[in-house]
Each structure stands twice: as structure tokens, then as C-alpha cells.
Amino acid sequence: MHAHRCLQNRVKEAEETERNINAARESYRPAATRGSILYFAVADLAGISPMYQFSLAYFIRLLSHCIEACGKSGDVAVRLQLLSEFATSFVFRDVSRWVK
User: Fold this and answer.
1) Cβ pair 32, 45 in contact under 8 A
2) What global pTM score does this model have?
3) d(Cα 67, Cα 72) in Å, to the nearest integer?
4) In 3-state terms, what secondary structure has residue 52?
5) pLDDT digits (tens, 9 = 90+) for 91-100
């Protein structure tokens, strides 16, 4: 009976952990949406000229840099705002170097 209770407690803990992870992941969905918008805007530049093609790997490196370099905050809403502003500005400046 003790093993059964122990197993039930572990299942409850695992379910709670899963709910917490899902909630944290969902709170960052606006950042993913912004990243997607930026990627497709940059990818569409190839329609202007093939020389304006940017690879997905290049773009992932840009966004990874943005995540590391932008301001930090313990408040998710503030962090999302900082990340959105920094990523938009950084991607614009970086891509603008090549588009002339």
C-alpha cells in the first residue's frame, strides 16, 4: 500500500510539473510569434532579388544572439517586451546591411 501511495504522489508531482512547464512555454508564445513574423518578412526579401536570401540557420543565429544579448527581467511581460524590441531592431539593422 505504501508503494502505491508513493507512486500516486510521484504521478501528481509529474502532472504538476507538466502543467508548470506548459504554462511557462505558453507565456513565451508572443516571442515565438514575433520571431516567426521577422523570419518570414526577411525570407520574403528573396522575392525582390535572389541575392537577398537568408538561410534559416542564419536567422536562428540572429535570434539566439537576441535572446542572449537583450535586457533581462524576472517579469515575463517585461522580458517579452525587451526581447521583441531588441530582436526587431537587431534583425532590421543586420539585414539592412545587406539590402541596399
Assistant:
1) no
2) 0.75
3) 9
4) helix
5) 999 988 877 6
Q: How far apart are CA 71 and CA 94, in angstroms?
A: 19
Cα gap 23→28, rounded to integer Å: 9
C-alpha cell at 53: 536570401
What's 80's DSSP letter? H
What residues have CB less than 8 Å from 30, skipping those under 6 apart? 80, 84
Residue-wise pLDDT tens digits, 16-37: 999 999 999 999 999 999 999 9
**Contact indicator for 41, 57 with CB cutoff of 8 Å:** no
What single-letter amino acid sits at 4? H
The cell for 37 is 513574423
Number of other CB atoms surrounding residue 29 within 10 Å: 10
